[in-house]
Amino acid sequence: MRSVILILMLLLASSTAQAQFALNPATTGLPNELGLGLSYGIKLDKDSLFWGYAPDYVRVLGGKWLLNVSLAYDEETETKNGSQSVTETWTPAVMIGYQLGPKIAVGGGFGHGVIDNKDGAGWKSVKLGKDLSAAVAVAVSLWNKDRHSLALSVSLEHNISDNEGSISTDLGYAWGF
What we know:
With 177 residues, the chain is mainly beta. The protein has one helix at 2-14, and strands at 32-43, 48-61, 65-80, 83-101, 104-112, 115-118, 123-125, 132-145, 148-159, 164-176. It has one domain (2-176): Porin. It has one helix and ten strands. Strands 1-2-3-4-5-8-9-10 form an eight-stranded antiparallel beta barrel.
């Protein structure tokens, strides 16, 4: 079963998957989880879609509170006046979540792009405050067994710097320890 999940995750990562904010309910019963989230989303105000992935760490605090730290890669493709531009970004993010029940969690957090690559021009650092985003998310556990879990989350995100909204769906695998 583990190999099936790993193959599924790799296939999703190589085809389609903004991974800035992924939240997983803590379903393994263990205080720490390492995971990988894959996501796909759209910008609400322009013809733009994005996909990405994010390794993350979740710490259960006090039984119900969750601290999620991730480093996300995302690739946004925007179509404007018949041409496309592609921007790749690496974004560290922090989210605080609350476990509402055994299979559902909600949360909110912030992320800040640190380096980006616009249309293949090369990786450049992002000015502090230039690519700052906030998000709220809800996550539902799809499957868990022993130390392993799979969750689906939906995030409503707002890029504060550019005043742009987006929505993304994330599929996340976690391994508890």
